[in-house]
Amino acid sequence: MDIQVHPNSAALFAISVISSVGDGASTLFWTDRWLHGQSLSQLAPDLISLVPNKFLNSWTVRDALYNLQLVRDIKGGVHVQALLEFLRVWDMLQEIQLLPGVPDHHVWTPSASGIFSSRSAYARFFEGAVKFEPCKRMWKSWAPPRCKFFLWLATLNRCWTDDRLARRGLDHPDKCHLCDQEEESAQHLLVSCVFARDIWFQVLSMIGWQQLTPDQNAIVFQDWWGEAESRVDKQQRKGFNSLVILVAWWLWKHRNECVFDSVSPSCQRIIRDIKDDATRWCLAGASRLSSI
Fold this sequence. Notes:
The chain is 49% helix and 3% strand. The protein is mostly helical. Strands 1-2 form a two-stranded antiparallel sheet. It is elongated, with a radius of gyration of 31 Å.
């Protein structure tokens, strides 16, 4: 049975494998990168368009060179550009000498060893992708999944704060629900709001980390979080990250209480809720958090 290969996977392998020809029995003539580190699809794109797919994916170097089979593969009218490419390839093929009994050698370029691994192939698929900078701090913490999910959305500015409502022409207050001073956004709510900074200071002061409190210059939450984590001992970072998620979660919940239940912003109330949740989260693994 034929194995169905996704075009993206085929393209990945086409650009990731370089073949050194021995007897030519395991290297595809038209599609593999074997001629001066390039494939004929790169060297002669107009010529290869005249070759049927059944030959592109079946003929090996040995098959194509045997009795000049490659000439028979070309079908239809040969225009000038394809003819020029054919002559160029023909000159390059004169240098090729097959070595009977010597197997072809294929090098997997994404790996330093040249040997294929699923891990290196998976990583190759994501080269150039935009990485989510705080992913390890977030997903490796002790926080419950719902809190991690919230902070993931907040970091990407996907929470329904007032700035998001404004962009969609929906009714919204002019000022932050907690500080009543600036326009509300996810970044403002978590790090630059004066109410939020007061909460951060009080919580972090309980465990001697008050120097990590975001200052008035902190604008982007994930930037402050990364900088603050770097100042914490490695043994305590998981606990610190869990605490950050906990405080951010309760800032959001308290904001929603103010919006939907008409509750007045209260530092004491949110501090109490944070303490209760910290106990339930069992942060005893981080000794400096046990005092909360």
